[in-house]
Amino acid sequence: MPEFVPLKKDDTVVYSGIAEIALGTALVVTPKQYRQAIGRIAGLFFTAVFLGNIAQYTKRSNAFGLDTDAKRLTRLFFQSALVAWALNSTSPSKPSKIRP
User: Fold this and answer.
1) Is 98 among the domain residues?
2) Containing domain of residue 58, as a range?
């Protein structure tokens, strides 16, 4: 967790995890007319969380089973995929494959 976050580190991680799950769910279940807005919100949030993941990697902080540099680095790639999914799956130029 970056030092500039004014909350308790463990609480912030739990709250951000809950928000990630909620936003991911919203990407799947949101009606079509709101999908692009939700995608942008989710993409921005996932990007903000990515900054925390970078801080964890560079400081070699252990948390939630991420106890090696390899695991922390792998998580960075998965977070990048979340950002791309949020933005690409809700792009107005792409038809939705989730719903007709």
Assistant:
1) no
2) 9-88
Instruction: Give tens-digit pLDDT for 40-72.
Output: 999 999 898 888 888 888 888 777 777 888 888
Collapsed DSSP state (helix, strand, coil) of residue 36: helix
* 42 and 27 Cβ atoms separated by less than 8 Å: yes
Secondary structure class of 63 (helix, strand, coil): strand
Beta pairing partners, 63? 66
Q: pLDDT digit string (tens) for 3-35? A: 666 777 778 778 888 998 998 899 889 888 888
Please tell me the total count of domains within the chain: 1
Which pLDDT belongs to residue 97?
Answer: 57
pLDDT of residue 22: 93
96 in any annotated domain: no
Q: Is 9 exposed, middle or buried (0-12, 13-18, 19+ CB in 10 A)?
A: middle
Scanning 1-100, the segments in alpha helix (DSSP H) are 9-29, 32-59, 69-88
SS3 91: coil
In a domain, 70, yes or no: yes
